[in-house]
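This entry is listed below:
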Amino acid sequence: MVSAWKEELLSSILEVGRGISYGIVQPGENRGNGIPIVRVNAVRDGQIDTSAPLRVAPEIESAYERTRLRGGELLLTLVGTVGEAAEVPLHLAGWNVARAIAVIPVRSEVGARWVRYILRTQKVRHLIDSWCNTTVQKTLNLKDVARIPVPLPPPATRQAILEVVGSLDDKIDMNRRMNQALELMAQALFRSWFVDFDPVRAKTEGRQPEGMDAETAALFPAAMDSSDGGLLPLGWRRVTLDSSIEILTGGTPRTAESSFWGGEIPWFSVKDAPADGDIWVVSTEKTITDSGLENCAAELLPVGTTIITARGTVGKLALTAVPMAMNQSCYGVRGRIQGTDAFTYYLLKNAVGDLRARTHGTVFETITRQTFSAIPVSLAPIEVRQRFDTVVEPMLKRVKANLLESKTLAELRDTLLPKLLSGEVRVGEAEAEWVASD
């Protein structure tokens, strides 16, 4: 930090009348019509995953008005993966948070974004790590959050730094939103073909299926059949989910054996699940060695394998962008037919609700291999499944390219930020470096 810059404790730059608070201690059972709350595993990489929030009873939430979100606050994770931070968008006003998250109402003239960037610096990360209590699991106390030092350059300097670093984040966010749109398009196409049977219904009515070339349309029958336990396109079959997939296993190398860790093989756990819409997992927090893989139950998953989290936080999905292994709380799923990776991913995504509904376990919700055998699915001929992959492949490739670009941009952002704060790099030089890397 430039020596002339002022520095304040986080507690001194809060909104008047609001302090730093943690959220709901005992949220109780998920209530479908309750108040949504942000849980600790939903805050990652500066974003808040709102795809599957826990909903709590209004009478429970009403006791935690102090952490009821208004929009614009900063959220900071306090337990487990400590130090993840994200700004609250305005559309989450009225939501609340779980006990493992701190709500930090930063004054608008400083801004939650500025504080979020300060939390990414090596100095503050080191402080947070040194303050954490690790008796049971890594935990940060609110009194320590309050004493985080925040450098405050002159407003013009601060704004210039925000524009440089923020522009990188804005491009990352643009990629994320594009990925969400592409993923929704692919998901809608799956539903149209394999759930609602739109091409078949169009042909039974004498119409050409919309948005489909003649070659693809010819793969769909022009009649429905009710002889296989329900109305299906002619020639399709009703099967159980497990009969159409191959299930691969995960495992964990011995943590005490250092030679098993830090290698070239990405090792997936639930915290590595991509944000909603990103689909692909391109890297993981931890890696293992060849020796680690050989000495545990994990298998090396080929590119295009669907990973589904099966214990604790169940039903998170990812497609492997590189060969990787995973822990025993996940399953790897492959289609039995070559060229159906995307079909298999969306088949699982469409079945996630049923899989979650059939979880069991006294401590953790768990999907077992038997759970897959209880889910009925309609199975199209091989040619239709493979054609689906061909159609959505360009969408998924674009998603992967966006993710890789965002990874590069994030690395540039994290390299530039400490240099800008220290004065080693001036704003104009940082802008030139970004343009050169574009």
About this structure: Residues 243-379 form a domain with the Adenine-n6-DNA-methyltransferase TaqI; Chain A, domain 2 fold (CATH 3.90.220.20).
